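Appendix B. Extra example for self-study. Work through it before the problem class; the solution is given directly after the inputs so you can check yourself.
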Amino acid sequence: MKVLNLQCGHEHTFEGWFASEDEYTSQLARGLLSCPLCGDTRIRKLLSAPRLNLRAGREVEAMPDRTSAAGGGRVELGMPAAGSALQASLLQAMRAVLANTEDVGERFADQARAMHHGDIEQRAIRGRTSPEVALELIEEGVDVLPLPALPALKETLQ
Ligand SMILES: [Zn+2]
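Solution. Structure tokens for the complete assembly:
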């Protein structure tokens, strides 16, 4: 799955979730992409590579209960199985991630690294780690992706 940073003609920036880069190109060509803020369909991809959403500071303020135990900011990460038929919409994608991943919680970084190095069998997992560790994982070439804050999402799904 690809998380792309997109921008509309009015310079609103937002994230788009796609099964692949081709899916983004295809949806763009068919005029299916529009800005969630203003509906503008003049969407372009920002040049910056898909990056972790590091607004963890704000998230910590909003949801202190999720982080008090660990004593630091935590970001939700997922590692979907390769080839998952994930659809473009965020909620569909998130449902798939939730349905097809094992929640390993705070062990995410260790498990993701172990899989990356072939120490344990590959499987789809999700969990939490600090923004710093998440960046380390990405720099190490571990194929992780950020997930939206799950408590808010669960409400949406119900
Ligand atoms: Zn816009």
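Self-check: The first strand starts at residue 2 and ends at 7. If your reasoning did not lead you there, revisit section 3.
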